[in-house]
Amino acid sequence: MKVQSAEFVISNTEVAKCPTDGLPEYAFIGRSNVGKSSLINMLTGNKKLAKTSGKPGKTQLINHFIINGDWYLVDLPGYGYAKTSKTNRAKWEKFISEYLTTRKTLTNIFVLLDARLEPQKIDLEFMNWCGEKGLPFSMVFTKIDKLSSSALQKNLAQYKKEMLKYWEELPPVFTTSSVSGFGQERILNYIDQINTTLR
């Protein structure tokens, strides 16, 4: 799939205000500072689509972008560390979980994981929560350009070992670099395949 157009549609904190046209939605979520905005911009070929920031926790709303007039890319606030009050964080968590569990057009959740780190408790907990709720998700490792191939394989193996403690099989796994564009084609083709089955 080639991204011909990527346009911002709406930002909000209420699921009821999300688009109602029934197009499939693909949500992107991860710990603060995992490189989510850079990945979204790399996937869409638009460096200014999602706002990137050196400060974790920049995304604080549910952001809908329509891709090729055909499906939505949904940018969700990060979980975990972010310089914000507990009240704000609780508020985000409420509308994020409401969106994830009640949105009928949500087709897949791309859970972003920093390839440089060993398995993080908060990431494992989030993926297990998705499993408990029956939500389809994929694991997307970011920043693979920041470590050697052997270090990457070691971290991927650790994640696999941890995940197989809870899961019979792993969800789809993608490795990406926003710098080189690696992983763009595989993720877009995966989305395209799912969309084809929905038509």
Give a short overview:
This protein is 34% helix and 21% strand. It has 199 residues and is α/β, with parallel strands linked by helices.
Let me know the CATH homologous superfamily.
P-loop containing nucleotide triphosphate hydrolases
How does CATH name the architecture?
3-Layer(aba) Sandwich
Adjacency order of strands in the biggest sheet? 1-3-4-2-5-6-7
* Beta strand count: 7
User: Per the principal axes of the C-alpha atoms, what is the gross shape?
Assistant: globular
**Rg over alpha carbons:** 16 Å
Mean model confidence by pLDDT: 90
In total, how many domains does the architecture comprise? 1
Kindly report how far apart the N and C termini lie.
15 Å
Highest CATH level, the class = Alpha Beta
Unreliable stretches: none
The helix fraction, in percent, is 25-40%
% residues in beta strands: 15-25%
Structural class: alpha/beta
The profile of the biggest β sheet is: 7 strands, mixed
Secondary-structure element order, as H and E?
Answer: EEHEEHEHEHEH
Task: Report the total helices.
Answer: 5
CATH topology: Rossmann fold
